């Protein structure tokens, strides 16, 4: 019996992970080859011959699940650990996170979705960039000039102008400029709408009669002028043009200032909001020039582009940015909604067309299937204008089924869209409460030069510590490079 105990102890191994000791059999660690634990030898720097154990400065809670994976062949996700930390620990031990069990896969995929959301919020640039000094000038490619103290006057002024016009919450002056921009934006939109009101337009006057002196007789009396008011052809009040001119002068100054001070002009021109702003401003000047030559009737339709300036409000409101990205993130669900709507519209339009022709129906309004398409769209979207209605019993039955199918079709993807918006909004609110500056933590490469020459005491006495730097799992000489962390 003592001999069996000695033989059993020879096959056991002690692993000290983060101060927590784990004991298992050597053949257990051999179950998953090509991993860090399957290549343990006494020649590694992690091995302590005095305590007869291997020490790893890693997370002990995650390692408990990893060791259980070696024992049972099933990898479970610990609920008290963050997802990125769990995947980082698995990567260190040479394991794949995709081997996680189905019962824990939903939790692990949820953490990955959270990482994607945080990455997306970084790309949306919702938060105010409070970076100063080298980080600010690094965006413009002038980090070396900043450290060398060789910045020119324009290099010092350009980032300030950019933050004034592009980051409304960076300073009080930026907030003042943003307020002016929003004021002119709202004013331009109001003017664009009011100038179409019939009571605020000036009708065109047309004169009828021949007033040429060559065709008048000397003795004839001068006939009074005949004036006709053409209400169909009118023009906006000149005051609207003056107000629009002032607003577009500000928009022009804003465009030129942002274009001249932007870090990358190519990215500036690629932004959809900037493209809309430039095109809308150009259409005003084209309209202004065309009005001087009397060609406003042909080009007035293109002024509709100016209403697209409303998208500039997303630059000043983070909620609008989140809403726009929610629709972008829910593109698959929206396309699925459109697909089912088109399918239902075509099916019910065809059914109601033939249903109204089965029975005797004098007031049949469904003269063709395209007319039925309009009725099906209005019915499935639960609008119901009532301009076209079925009159037969079979047609009304199809109309009832069409309305119910429309309600179900539209209601199915709505929770997904609402969930995406709530997820983006909650993460944005949480990020806004986080501290802007955090204490820096040195990496292992920065700490290693201070400790690589420190003495290391083993059973043979103090010897210089070697192999202290973090090395990959597999090296070029095929030697397991497990080292202290």
From TrEMBL:
Record-level GO cellular component terms: axon terminus; dendrite membrane; neuronal cell body membrane; postsynaptic membrane; presynaptic membrane; voltage-gated potassium channel complex
Main location: membrane
UniProt domain BTB: residue ranges: 11-111
Polar residues bias (residue ranges): 473-485
Pfam family for this entry, one: Ion_trans
Mode of membrane association: Multi-pass membrane protein
Region (Disordered) residue spans: 453-485
Subcellular locations according to the entry: Membrane
InterPro entries linked: BTB/POZ_dom, Ion_trans_dom, K_chnl_volt-dep_Kv, K_chnl_volt-dep_Kv3, SKP1/BTB/POZ_sf, T1-type_BTB, VG_K_chnl, Volt_channel_dom_sf
Keywords annotated in UniProt: Ion channel, Ion transport, Membrane, Potassium, Potassium channel, Potassium transport, Transmembrane, Transmembrane helix, Transport, Voltage-gated channel
Gene3D superfamilies xref list: 1.10.287.70, Potassium Channel Kv1.1, Chain A (3.30.710.10), Voltage-gated potassium channels. Chain C (1.20.120.350)
GO biological process, one term: action potential
One of the record's GO molecular function terms: delayed rectifier potassium channel activity
Keyword presence, Ion transport: yes
Residue intervals passing through the bilayer: 173-194, 334-354, 366-385, 397-425
Homology family: Belongs to the potassium channel family. C (Shaw) (TC 1.A.1.2) subfamily. Shaw sub-subfamily.
Protein name: BTB domain-containing protein
Source organism of this protein record: Caenorhabditis nigoni
Lineage: Eukaryota, Metazoa, Ecdysozoa, Nematoda, Chromadorea
């Amino acid at each position: 019996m003592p001999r069996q105990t000695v033989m059993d102890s020879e096959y056991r191994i002690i692993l000290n992970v983060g101060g927590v000791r784990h004991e298992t059999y050597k053949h257990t660690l051999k179950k998953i080859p090509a991993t860090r634990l399957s290549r343990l030898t006494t020649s590694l720097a992690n091995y302590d011959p005095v305590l007869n154990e291997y020490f790893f400065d890693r997370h002990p809670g995650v390692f408990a699940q990893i060791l259980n994976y070696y024992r049972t062949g099933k990898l479970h996700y610990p609920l008290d650990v963050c997802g990125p930390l769990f995947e980082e620990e698995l990567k260190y031990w040479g394991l794949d996170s995709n081997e996680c069990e189905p019962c824990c896969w939903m939790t692990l995929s949820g953490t990955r979705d959270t990482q994607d959301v945080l990455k997306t919020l970084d790309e949306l640039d919702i938060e105010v960039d409070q970076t100063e000094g080298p980080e600010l000038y690094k965006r413009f490619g002038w980090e070396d000039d900043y450290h060398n103290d060789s910045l020119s006057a324009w290099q010092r002024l350009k980032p300030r102008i950019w933050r004034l016009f592009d980051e409304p919450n960076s300073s009080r002056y930026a907030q003042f400029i943003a307020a002016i921009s929003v004021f002119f934006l709202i004013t331009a939109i109001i003017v664009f709408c009011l100038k179409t009101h019939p009571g605020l337009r000036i009708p065109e006057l047309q004169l009828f009669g021949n007033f040429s002196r060559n065709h008048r007789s000397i003795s004839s009396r001068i006939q009074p002028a005949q004036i006709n008011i053409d209400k169909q052809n009118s023009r906006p009040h000149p005051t609207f043009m003056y107000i629009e001119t002032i607003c577009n002068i500000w928009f022009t100054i804003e465009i030129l200032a942002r274009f001249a001070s932007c870090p990358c002009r190519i990215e500036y021109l690629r932004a959809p909001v900037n493209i809309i702003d430039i095109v809308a401003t150009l259409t005003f000047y084209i309209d202004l020039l065309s009005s001087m030559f009397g060609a406003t009737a042909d080009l007035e339709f293109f002024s509709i582009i100016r209403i697209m300036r409303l998208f500039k409000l997303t630059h000043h409101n983070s909620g609008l940015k989140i809403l726009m990205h929610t629709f972008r993130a829910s593109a698959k669900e929206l396309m699925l909604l459109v697909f089912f709507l088109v399918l239902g519209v075509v099916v019910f339009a065809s059914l109601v067309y033939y249903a109204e022709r089965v029975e005797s129906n004098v007031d049949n309004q469904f003269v063709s299937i395209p007319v039925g398409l309009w009725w099906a769209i209005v019915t499935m979207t639960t609008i119901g204008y009532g301009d076209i209605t079925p009159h037969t019993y079979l047609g009304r039955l199809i109309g009832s089924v069409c309305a119910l199918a429309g309600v179900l079709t539209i209601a199915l993807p709505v929770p997904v869209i609402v969930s995406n918006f709530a997820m983006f909004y909650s993460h944005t609110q949480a990020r806004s409460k986080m501290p802007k500056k955090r204490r820096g933590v040195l990496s292992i490469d920065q700490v290693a030069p201070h400790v690589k020459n420190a003495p290391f005491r083993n059973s043979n006495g103090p010897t210089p510590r070697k192999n202290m730097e973090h090395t990959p799992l597999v090296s070029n000489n095929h030697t397991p490079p497990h080292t202290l962390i």
